[in-house]
Fold these 4 entries.
Entry 1:
Amino acid sequence: MNRIINLGVIPAIAALVFFLITCSNENPIELPNNGGKIDSSSSISDVSSSSPPVQGELSSSSEQESELSSSSTEPDSSDSGQEASSSSDEGLSSADTQDDSSSSGASASSADAASSSGGATSSAEVATSSSSSTSSLGSSSSRAQTSSSSRATSSSSLRSSSSTASSSSVRSSSSVAAVPPVNTPKENFTQTVGGVSFDMIYIPGGTFTIGCESGNCPSDTKAVSGVEVSSYFIAKTEVKNGLWKAVMGSEIPPPQYASNTGSATHITWYDAMEFACKLSNMTGRKYHMTTEAEWEYAAKKHKDKLSDIGGGSGVSGEEWAYNSWNSTHMGGKDPVGPGSGQHTQKTRRDANGYSDNITARLIRSIEGIGPALRLAVSADMDYPPNYVSPCDLHAPKLEGEPANSYRDPRWVTGSDARWTTNGTIAIGNLDLRVWEDGTAQLTAGYGSSRATVGQWFTSNNIAFVFVPNSGAITKYLYIFLDDKQGSLISDKSFTSGGYIGRIEKQSASSVAKPTVADLKTGEALAKAQATFETEFKMVDMTNIPASAQKQDARLIDGPGKGWFQNNTSAGGVHHYRKDVDADEFRFTVNQNNGRTMLANGKWFTVNNTFLRVVHSKGYTADYLYAVDADGTFYHNSFMGYERGDFRMFKKETNGDAWPKTTCGNICSEEIPKGLDQSMYSSQGATGKSTFVPAPCPAGGCK
């Protein structure tokens, strides 16, 4: 049983969970905290060598590096005009914020995962270290929406090099012979690719304390001592636009600065992996994204040899780290974080705003854009232990949306597989077996270990409904990332048999299919439900008829109230607010005295399941949503910058309920009506809805 939350720590976890959910979802945006700042960088002046160049026009140098010159300046992606656009996650960037939906964790209390303040349960903001709710995927190659618009990578491909043999340009025939680490002198070197050079600094391995050791420590940076790091080379600078173009053959999709000397931002985690893979094939060296331990060790022990660390660079100083998000640091030797290579929220590093100028760390949706990339090469091995090769990591894809039916075939597991929790992005338990004939066996809810037998059906390929032999049904709203991964929210709290988080289809010990009396077809089972007409009726989701467009009254917050996700108790600075009136829906992420619009405009719901918001200028935002018995409002996002990420909200009265020290009046007052559309409207596929409706079956949707 995958028990994600420990009963003994439920009260504390509740707050953390909610925060994490919030945070990971916050990935989309980051309010600039250093507006108009420019960042300086330059090349090393003393990198030369008498030894002949290696593959990729490599030259070595002595171990001494000169201080960076500030002759060249590069606009920082956190500059004005991006209002948090730099980070593609809806969470404003800040060293304190973990924009990860994992923050929405669960409060183990009856308030379940949404505190009375800001969407978390009363005891906390439902943000748990283990429950980061969602995040966003995408790679340069996957920015164009696939037919299924899914941007996730199958977990199996993430874990197996053989499963990624398909990946395109990554295995170009132009690859050069591999350069074993033992053939690289342990000294600084310069690598040149396509006429563009960058410097790699040798970092002797050692032991250090990862995390915040003194001063005003941000959340989720509790120090862990005795962390060992093997010797490696680290790039002196973040990857620049000029190098990106030399390797990838094209510029990063807009918005992006044109300067070749500017840091390459607006890239997703998968973009960074594709870049590292192609660069490795071009040079023969196994370049990789720095692990969090490599990044921090260099920043603490060798900061004077590096640029773009401290003082702000890239997206307010943010860089991707190869580390699946967890609210606590991992110790040991060459740690790579939990669930290495899994499709889940990742870690970004931000060196701004703290006394040591190093230990800030935040959550980032895997499909979020914004962080820059710093490269590394291991000095004594191909990759750190458990590090999945960048050439084996690809954005997930679905091959097509099956026809709208009352039995979505993607759910079928048979006797030898199951749907279960995926990584740390989960609140509650889930163990689901599904058979083609309609039989289902479910173990769900916090602390539950008893399997319940029943039947199942689906509605419009977005709602999975478990109908037990006795008792109340459970409705799970789902977004598939690929054929083996998905994201769920439910209409029950995790303490009442519901589940919120990522799921994965896994092989499992074979079980006999249970016997269920009076098995019905999916359609018959759906129509047998008392709420069929309002909850489960088949709808043409391609051209949603006016008769199906309703406004779920539960979402309208009423005068002087709003829906909040408050991350204060978990140390976050990103907070979310929704104001829902009959004439307009508004949704913002807030930090300090700044707000970033995520979705606003006319709105409607379908089957108390699907929510669409359309701005007067045409920008469309799509979500799945649920409201549980405790009044918690959950949503799961189809938006490209956070596909599959979820958040949790509680209705609060305007005024003092929101701490003005963290977001001023923008949290405690109504969001003004009639504002311009979200900044994501100009970000191409990354900013758009990825919802792909299930095509109607032969004979039409009926």
Entry 2:
Amino acid sequence: MVDALSELAVSCAQKSTVSEILAAALPLLQELTGGGAIRWTSDPDSGHALPGNTGTLVLTAEETEQLTPALAILDNAIARAHAQTALADLEERMNNAQSLANMGDYDWHIASNTNRWSDQLYRIYGQAPQSFNASYDRFLSFIHPDDRERIQAIHQQAYATGEPYEMIERIVREDGKVRYLASNGQVLHDATGTPERMRGTCIDITDRVRAEETFRSLVETSPDAILVLDHAGSILEVNGHASTLLGEPLIGRAAADLRLVAGEGVATFTVTGEPLRLDITTANLSDIGEGCRRAMFLRDATARIEREQLAAQLREIQVRRRQALEVNDNIVQGLVAAVLAMNHNPGMAKSYMETTLAAARRLMDDWLEPLSGEDLRPGDLIRRSPSTLVIEQAAPTITSLRPRILIVDDNGVVRNLMRLEIESLHNYEIVGEAADGEEAVARTIALKPDVVLLDLAMPTMDGLQALPLIRAASPAVRVIVLSGFDSRSMAEKALEAGADRYLEKGFEMDLGIVIDEVLGAA
């Protein structure tokens, strides 16, 4: 019996797979049971269940004394085969993972100076797997000479404290190529506190380091000033151009202190307080809570602004050229025709003048087309200087009785002619004149007129700005707007601002009739 059991144990030990073990064991089991029938099945029949879901042995012979220890030998052999298969699978998956990650692991037994390296760690060092014992001295021989002292100091610190360590070291392969490794590990101590083992992992980060070096080179040679900010907006890193543009020091400062915000032509200040005009853009480098990083790109906007200003000036010159041609074709020619007809046919001269005024208003409408969707607003009609005509002449003063009229126009000749027309045709008292919006408000307060004849385009304050102030100063006053602008473009705005009537300047104004109508409606 003992010899038979020993033969079974030896036969099972020599096999490495479950199928090989079963093939060798079943005949021997039959002999041990006196030739009884024993069969294997994968179905969960009643019988002896083998380890690891291997199947079931169905016994058709009577159980003997030898059967129980024999089955124990078989079970142990099958369990060993399963364990070896699982271990081999685990090692294969680990090796595949380390190969994909370009990572290796080590386990140095300090007392024996023997070091178990994974296959991938050998490859990282440019060596064939398991080709030598990676003793500590052999390991140090691969370390870049400039890094050896630092690496040994890190290890000595780990020996003394038992604390985990992390480091980046350079290794020099036998072919002379330099690789960068990121390593971490820990020294394990025995019960007496003596360092016993040092184990950890290494990752080849050469490609990442070289990519970072290339990126940093690009950053340093970039025409932009580049800053890297943390989640709170503090400056972590800068390139040389940023230091040149903004001044030193920058690291640790808050970007908000320098008034750095994204946008074109943003006004900001150097650390010395000097103003700059910058184009600023930002980009997120990471979005992980407090670990987030943001890059800020700054470029001096002076050259761009100067180019845009030059382009705007060229466009303005082109617009003025076109406007000058339109004025010549539509206004000057019409005025010349009116002058020539004046001595021969006054009616025709008047027709030419009316046509010319209409053409002038159309031109103004064209030139006042809203820019970027923005229509005219109060203040847009302020003149740089009062309107003037070439010939100034004093109009006779005619004293009349009320109603009281205040004439507001920045052109002195127009004011005189309006005074002459009103006083010669109607029994009104002209109480005063004003040449701009501010003066109109002041004269309304001081003179308290019944009617204000108000121009729109004037210096200092235009008519649209002055209207609500005149109304507030004298709620009972009647305001008639007299303007050279086409009523289609300006009448609604004037009435909304508080005017009682809107008249286009020209031959058909009929001031007396309009004043009577406005006063009669009061």
Entry 3:
Amino acid sequence: MITCLKYLLESEMTVHKKILLLLLISVSIYTVLGIAFQQFLILPSFQALEQEEARKDVRRCVEALHREVHHLDLFCFDWAAWDDTYRYIADPTEAYESSNLSAASFIDNDINLIYLFDRSGALVWGQYYDLDLEEPVPFPDFPAEGLAATHQILNHKTRDNYIHGIYRSSKGALLLASRPILPSEAEDNEVIRGTFVMGRLLGPTILEEIQQQTQVDLDLYPIEDDRIPESVRLLPVETEEIHYTSAELLQAYANVPDITGKPTLTFVTYLPRSIMARGHEAIRLQTMAAGAAGLAFVLLLAFFMRGLVSHPLHVLSEQAKRVRLGNTPEPVAALRRNDEIGRLARDFHSMLRRLRREEEERSRAQLALRNSQARLETILKTAPDAIVITNADGVVESANDAAGQLFGHPTEQLTGMRGRDLLADEEQHYWVKAVATYAGAPGPEPFTADRESAIRRADGTELPVHMCVTSMYLDGELYFTSSVRDISEIRAIQARMARAQHLASIGEMGATVAHEIRNPLAGMRGAIHLLQSGDLPDSLRTEALQGVSESVDRIAHTVDQLLGYARPLTPRRSSFRLRPLLEAVSELSPGETPPAHDVTITCPESLSLIADPNLIRRVLENLWLNAQQSAGPAGSYQWTAEAAHGSITIELTDNGSGLEEATALRLFEPFFTTRVEGTGLGLAVSLRILEAHHGSIHLENRPPGGVAATISLPEGVA
């Protein structure tokens, strides 16, 4: 590079050619660096995105398979916790077998295997049913004499124990579920009479269901299959590995464990490499555009440099020749400048021509200013985003045509309007406060604010937008430039995705709700049979009717909780102070437990929140009652609320026993609860409420003990 510059300086080429050659070299270096940047930084990001999509595909397939196993386990649990099954193990009857263990039970429930063992492992009843042949077939894996009591699928030591997963059998891979046989209202000391085992063949039907659920092209092979690479066989279970089979296709692998936790099957998903193809195409187009722009830049700059440097030097050279010949040349406008060339030109001209030169320079400056203003107006008018410029008092000074279209006002009418009148009501507080605070005491750094917001159009409708506001100084005066972009289509897409996820969550809860209703129904049926049996003492009749009433109340409570979770949330926002709400919530106590007294509240009196006060109170009450359930009436509790960086954070800490690792992973799962009488919807509903307010919630253990629950909500707009 130094040698090249030295050659340019010492060569006899004209200045114009030297400048043009130097520009070409600079643009070439820039282009090469740009291509290297794209190849080594941009393109790997496309590859990483492609790999992440492949990992997501195979993870969805594994999760879908786990859901199938989970659904089978719930179905098996319903049968194992049935009083008739409990009695059947002790006293097998043909009536139970004909009504519950017929071929219809296999066909209607898409089940291939049902086996019942007693406590010693002896086979009470068992059958493998071929759904394609529609007939029972031998199943040598479970012999007629039964299994050892210590067999892996019979080893139920507690009433809550369950075993489910993949089981490799002589018929192929099975989805298997094993549950201890207990009565529906089993006590803690209830004797386990045996084991209920259900299985479903993991065949093309299940794979087709998984493919329809995930919309992923997939295969499932035994882990020892020759089509599975050796490196994949050594992977831990549910760990993804990506293989590139060609320039057009990549494969993602993930191992699935059997009921013992060992890898047994391997999912293979296929993903077309469309992301990399788009990446290569984008880089190609960008390289072509950069090359074209560089060439245009060289030509344009060469043109200006000719006028600024090479041509004036040529004119001065010609004038010097005329001076040597005794002629006094007239001043040349191109040479009237304040640089070295201008000073050289002034030496050639007399002081009498100074005024004319200054007048000509002034005319050029005015023309340049008018041209600059014209270019600025053209940029503002043709910009795709709405651009609004306001002064320090919040009055619109100018706006482009895109702003008039977005706000629904004629562009000329926007000038002179108050900027706050263009905002939605709930947004005015935030923007007016932020801009007024900076205008009152401008700092050394320019003001910048970037967030999603809402505007009010001329017809009164509100529109979600993304706003970016920055400050600037013109002639010593403070102005604010606002760039506004319509994001209503993005919000609509997000809303549709949220509804789809909500419906999927409701579908997953169906099996759990069925179980929650089945048990009370079983109790009601027993009570009704007792009432129909004949004359009963009044005490037993009253007790039976009371049991029916309690079962009905339990079903009604479950349905009410489900409706409350499934019903769409529409927050009714209003402004309210946060501290009185925290004080009111802290007076609540679960059941008959007296309220805790060791409560500390750290919250400014003036801290306000714009949200639905009833829904936010419901979230706070749920966290407060959960904390008291954990720490008890003698526990210590701390509320902390503060506003910072455009959001309001509310934190509740206690000194209870904390969260178990397995519990922490399922906190927000509907119908998951660690309480005997809980419904498991409290935190799930709380999460929905906060998401409807564009907020979030997080629970974690804190040293030395207890739980910290943190809520985050946007400041000014919920």
Entry 4:
Amino acid sequence: MIQSTDWVVRLEQKNAELALIADLFLTLGQTLDAAVIRSEVLGVAFLLTGAQRVRLAVRHNAGWQIAALRDGAEVTVETDLSTLAQRLIREARPIALALDCPGEGPNCQVGVPLLHRGSVVGALEAEGLPAAERLDDHLHALGLVAGAASLALENARLHEDVLQANERLDAERERLAVTLTSIGDGVIATDTEGRIVLMNRVAEHLTGWTQGEALGRPLTEVFQIVNARTRQPSENPVEKVLVSGAVTGLPNDTALIAGDGGERLIDDSAAPILDKDGSILGAILVFRDATERRQAEQALRASEEHFRLAVDNSPDYVFRQNLDLRYTWVSKAAPPFTPEELLGKTDFELFHREEAERVTAIKRRVLETGVGIATELSASSGGEKQHFEIAIEPWRDRDGRITGIGGYARNITKRKRAEEERDRLTAQLELRAAELDAANRELDAFASAAAHDLRAPLARISGFSKIFLEDYGHSLDERGKDLQRRVADASLGMAQLVDGLLKLARLGCSELHPRSIDLSELAKEIVTDLKETAPERQVEFIIAPKLVAEADPQLLRAALENLLGNAWKYTSKHAQAKIEFGTTVCEDCPVYFVRDDGAGFDTAYADRLFNAFQRLHSSSEFGGTGVGLATVHRIVLRHGGRIWAEGAVEQGATFYFTLQPGPATKGARPGE
């Protein structure tokens, strides 16, 4: 009865073990995670054996991954294989050990290798088993667990290898995609049937097709090429490659017709795609837009042709000589030579010895120093002495070595003669200028002397008239007093006229001292002085701010005093008046003006305004000497400018002037 009960217990225990192993198989069949597999295997091994410690060693790359449980709890991962594990791996068979450790009692161990396709891939061991009599049962159970573990771990390893391979493949595809995208040329790959399997963005741009649209289509449908000259379809390079297996290209005059109808000249080459055995897997086509390069080549050819024509038609003589200073190329030759007569010869064979020595010395200096020289030479040509301007440079090869000289010679005989004539005329002009300067100085001295000689009697006349009126005025009737006052006024006017003439005469010979002037501030100062002469007058002054000019300060003050003074004078008959000083712009040239609303003038007589002593109003109506505007005219001309006026009777006048050469201005008057 007791034996029967033991048998039942053992049967139940066996069934429980088989249930654990079945659950393990089911769990391992549902996961590919190596860490989960190791954990499940260790847990089941612990439950099956009841060992104090179970360990699982799994081969990983060139080493081992070791996991362990002690008393059912996970412990720190070990790094070294146990002695039993080393035996299991070495002997590749299950091992059971019943050891008697002094002081510790019996220590039973069992272990089984993890086998896959006859190779050891790990070891599962249990240590500190409770009963030595069940070692065979434990070995059998661990063997079942090890079989399941080895298969599951190998599946996990293969899964990891697949994942890593996929990652590497994805990385390689990404690298290839980035490479293709980064390539500046269009790239299209085809299979052995000539159907498109890949194209990069440049190819999409050039063909007008996207990769999604083009995949699987025949290359000839997407990559349509014609002869740019004949407009006939060109041979498909991929078809040629797939047949011959050799790299091929297109003619230089091939044009690609894009999907949108656009056309581009292209360069391309096609090559076979081969496997490791040399079999053709497809073809790859690499092409680029050559439109700009072809245009540049055409422009270069045109430029070279223009250069040739320019050289052929240039009056210069362009030449090249080798290290022996023999002519190797000439564009043309000076009479009486022809280009053919110069080739292969030196200057000593062509010119007088003295002239040849002079020009040869210059050329040898260029060869020795490597530095170009530009100079002038004289030579006898056609029985007449000719002058030449020459420039010589060293001629170098691609490595920078001097292989000769190149240069040009220009006949400047006419220019030299013109320069000699110019020098002669300049000398005459300078002599004439000196004579004029002397005459101006004499005229200035005469004007000063005449003014001094005239001022003295005028001053005496004015003085005597004043004394006469003071001493004898009581004995004169009104008529006599009036006549005497007229004599005094006439003498004063005559003195002012003399001063005006003297200033006008000196304007032509005085030296200019231009600098930056604030014309607005200068006008304000003049207006202040004018207001003090008649403070009771109602005159509105408008002065534009910040008017700056480059001019002689003294002369510009005199000009503005005359113009503003005239405006003040010719508005004196009006109870209220307006005077304006401003500027406008005509074709980038500043034009200054003084405008008033006074007496104005008849434009029919405008040509008299800037002439000395020419007046459009009587002196009894408006006083003055008649030289003011002539003075302004002279000052403006000294600055290289122009002056003109516009006006109407009793509607005011506007005087325009510039201080630099400017464009012809509409409405210009005499004096411009």
